[in-house]
Automatic annotation (TrEMBL), chain A:
Cofactor dependence: Mg(2+); Zn(2+)
Annotated organism of origin: Yarrowia lipolytica (strain CLIB 122 / E 150)
UniProt-listed PANTHER family: GERANYLGERANYL TRANSFERASE TYPE BETA SUBUNIT, GERANYLGERANYL TRANSFERASE TYPE-1 SUBUNIT BETA
A Pfam family of this chain: Prenyltrans
Protein name per Swiss-Prot or TrEMBL: Geranylgeranyl transferase type-1 subunit beta
Domain Prenyltransferase alpha-alpha toroid stretches: 2-368
Assigned EC number: 2.5.1.59
Lineage, broadest ranks: Eukaryota, Fungi, Dikarya, Ascomycota, Saccharomycotina
This protein's GO CC annotations: CAAX-protein geranylgeranyltransferase complex
Top-level taxon of the source organism: Eukaryota
Family: Belongs to the protein prenyltransferase subunit beta family.
Ranges where the record places region Disordered: 251-283
UniProtKB/TrEMBL annotation, chain B:
Protein name: Protein farnesyltransferase/geranylgeranyltransferase type-1 subunit alpha
Keyword Oxidoreductase listed: no
UniProt keyword annotation of Acetylation present: no
Entry's Gene Ontology BP terms: peptide pheromone maturation
Organism placement in taxonomy: Eukaryota, Fungi, Dikarya, Ascomycota, Saccharomycotina
EC nos: 2.5.1.58, 2.5.1.59
Length: 386, 330
């Protein structure tokens, strides 16, 4: 594994990105999280942050992304409205600068990775937890943010994951009863169960109907349950079967199972495009392997106790031999693709899950290191408070 | 159409010294987002605001608050049109142009997350204010856009999700049989299009969920034959196997009925004569066979099928097949 090159890759992205990265402008905290957490797992964070002063300055930058109300984080300084020199005549407001769930989760994670032990004296657990609860709809699902009491119109299983992730990081487990407004857990559990597809994986839906199941959505649904202490493995047997089916094996589809004679010409199987697939994971039935699914599937299997049900050796080989960029560092989505922070980070996380030596341990259902988890919660990641 | 912004004080992006993941923004992007911040802070809902929003979205469609600002602006236009505001004609024109504008963004950024909820809100706005549209709301335009986008990427998850939303949200405007026919054609074109299989399952549920007697009708048998024919084209294609198992499970039919189908693609050595070599062309058939045998309490045969998967026909998942064997033995 090209540890030195990956360290350089993450450090470069943390420093400056070219104008082509403008499409990430709304989610700069996500880039920061991918890169800092990547360095954290590689064990090379001190090569990027060389002095304690530097560390403090980066911590301050993360705090600058906290919205004025203190309810959470914005995704990027681009959203910051007030606080500029001429705003003393405050006729307007900050309604278009809301906290959002993704940025809030990433912001908290970054502070944990940077080893900030003052976090809960500087941030209000109560404000954050109440805001998370306000992003929940009656049907148990969540939107990405909430403006004037109105939940954003996007439906996505990711927000269940992020909401429960924030809740797990921000709740004070030493207090037996928290006075904060809490998420409606039974409604969320019902929502997630409703999105289990007939195929076994989790899709998403808002009316009891389910879209095509997807490894990323499945990860989010199962992790949300796990973070809330509601994952009962026995209920997810079909999902487990669907998940193990995501590991690609050209050897079975091409050789051992003699299918080629039956394949008709119109059949535009994606497997015939030439990239190596064996050991990688796909996001949906019949699709090609992609680096990030090695994590989404691997971590989902870890939550269900099934990492050994697929080939960890082939999973590592796929990433190291095919999508790792040995020149620039980082990982691409597919072989030959330019690396990007998300795939680079999830490539490292997947390798950690599948037992690559020399990497930090990742908490599968939170996608941060065990060390960062302990900094934020003072607790052990193997126990979940319900 | 160009608007005047002279009265507006741009709010610049203020970046601190130790910024992380800075982006070398272009001047054009800095200018557009500077105006957007000023408009947002004033909470100004105007035609020039809509133009700035378009400009920011063109440069960065993943900028999430601009979409919230945009739909709020459009909703305020709808109210202004109703109230007979002085600029109501221009605002009405902007509203009527909006779906077309979304078409262009959708085609330029087919993987964007924000366009679809925006479009959903627009349709709901036109549904309650039909006079804004100037014509009756139909889904023709939506289906046309969807078909166009699926012709480019037949598995685009966002587009399929939007299609499913349309069918549930506007049941009276959708022809379920024509939707079903679309999935038949797509599956004939590419039997591995799992998105089309998923949509098909969803449509059948919608059509038949309140009629359990459907499973005894010829149309159910026709569906089973459609699946069987598709399996025969590519027996190792997982989609139709998942589909038929899903169908049997959802409508509580006995999977024993599928034994004959599985025998075409998998059989066990113990079922054959001594010098016969089993021809196994689908690991999925073997898996289903194991489930059928387990259900019939023929545990040794179920274990035999699982052994074949573990050792020869699907060794990458041997840990999983070993686990399944444990479940049989338990």
């Amino acid at each position: 594994m090209e540890k030195t090159k990956h360290t350089k890759y993450f450090s470069r992205c943390l420093f400056l990105l070219p104008a082509q990265a403008t499409s990430y402008d709304g989610n700069r905290l996500s880039i920061v999280y991918f890169c800092l957490s990547g360095l954290d797992l590689l064990g090379t964070l001190d090569q990027f942050i060389k002095t304690d002063e530097q560390r403090k300055e980066y911590i301050e930058w993360i705090y600058k992304q906290v919205v004025e109300s203190g309810e959470g984080f914005r995704g990027s300084p681009t959203f910051k409205l007030c606080g500029h020199e001429h705003s003393e005549s405050r006729e307007g407001d900050n309604k278009y600068d809301p906290a959002n769930l993704a940025a809030t989760f990433f912001g908290l994670a970054c502070l944990g990775i940077l080893g900030d032990r003052e976090i809960w004296t500087r941030l209000s657990r109560d404000k954050i937890l109440s805001y998370v609860a306000s992003c929940q709809r009656d049907d148990g699902s969540f939107g990405s943010f909430c403006i004037d009491g109105k939940v954003a119109p996007d439906y996505d299983m990711r927000y269940c994951y992020l909401a429960t992730g924030i809740r797990r990081l921000a709740r004070d487990t030493s207090e037996r009863l928290s006075s904060s407004r809490d998420i409606n857990i039974p409604a969320m559990v019902g929502h997630i169960k409703n999105t289990e597809s007939f195929q076994g994986g989790i899709g998403q839906g808002q009316t009891g109907n389910v879209t095509e199941p997807h490894s990323g959505l499945t990860y989010c649904g199962l992790s949300a349950l796990k973070n809330a202490g509601q994952l009962n493995n026995k209920e997810w047997g079909t999902t487990l079967e669907w998940l193990v089916g995501r590991q690609c094996d050209e050897r079975t589809s091409e050789t051992q199972v003699s299918e080629s004679s039956k394949r008709d010409d119109n059949d535009s199987s994606e497997e015939e495009q030439g990239d190596p697939q064996t050991g990688g994971f796909n996001g949906r039935v019949g699709k090609l392997a992609d680096t990030c699914y090695s994590f989404w599937v691997g971590a989902s299997l870890a939550s269900l106790g099934g990492t050994n049900y697929v080939s960890a050796d082939l999973a590592r080989e796929y990433l190291l031999n095919n999508t790792q960029n040995t020149l620039l560092g980082g990982f691409g989505k597919t072989p030959g693709e330019i690396p990007d922070p998300l795939h680079s980070y999830l490539g490292v996380c997947a390798l950690s899950i599948f037992g690559q030596p020399g990497l930090g341990k990742v908490v599968p259902e939170l996608c941060i290191s065990e060390k960062a988890f302990e900094t934020l919660t003072g607790g052990d990641s193997t126990s979940v408070a319900v | 159409m160009s608007h005047n912004f002279d009265d507006l004080e741009i709010i610049p992006l203020r970046e601190s010294d130790h910024a992380l993941a800075s982006i070398a923004y272009t001047d054009e992007y800095k200018q557009a987002t500077g105006l957007l911040r000023a408009l947002m802070e004033k909470n100004e809902k105007s035609l020039r605001g809509l133009q700035v929003a378009s400009n920011v979205i063109a440069q960065n469609p993943a900028h999430y608050t601009v979409w919230a600002y945009r739909i709020d602006t459009l909703k305020s236009f709808a109210a202004d049109v109703k109230a007979g505001a002085a600029d109501k004609d221009e605002k009405l024109a902007a509203l009527q142009h909006e779906l077309r504008w979304v078409d262009d963004i959708a085609m330029a950024c087919p993987k964007n997350y924000q366009i679809w909820p925006h479009r959903q809100q627009l349709l709901e706005l036109f549904e309650v204010n039909p006079d804004l549209l100037g014509e009756e709301l139909t889904l023709d335009r939506e289906i046309e856009l969807i078909d166009y986008m699926l012709s480019d990427d037949s598995k685009n998850h966002h587009v399929w999700s939007y299609r499913q939303w349309l069918v549930t949200r506007f049941p009276t405007l959708v022809n379920l049989d024509s939707e079903l026919a679309t999935t038949s054609i797509m599956i004939q074109e590419d039997c591995r299009n799992n998105s089309a299989w998923n949509h098909r399952f969803f449509l059948f549920k919608l059509k038949n969920d309140n009629k359990q007697e459907w499973t005894t009708k010829p149309s159910f048998q026709e569906e089973v034959e459609f699946v069987a024919n598709t399996i025969d084209k590519a027996p190792q294609n997982h989609s139709p196997w998942l589909y038929i198992e899903g169908l049997y499970s959802h409508y509580k039919k006995d999977i024993k009925d599928l034994q004959e189908l599985t025998f075409k693609y998998a059989c066990l050595p113990s079922d054959l004569g001594e010098d016969e070599e089993p021809l196994i062309t689908s690991s999925h058939a073997l898996d289903l066979l194991a489930k059928i045998y387990l259900k019939e309490q023929e545990k040794s045969k179920a274990l035999e099928a699982l052994n074949l998967l573990e050792e020869k026909y699907d060794p990458i998942r041997k840990g999983y097949w070993a686990y399944r064997k444990k479940l049989v033995e338990a």
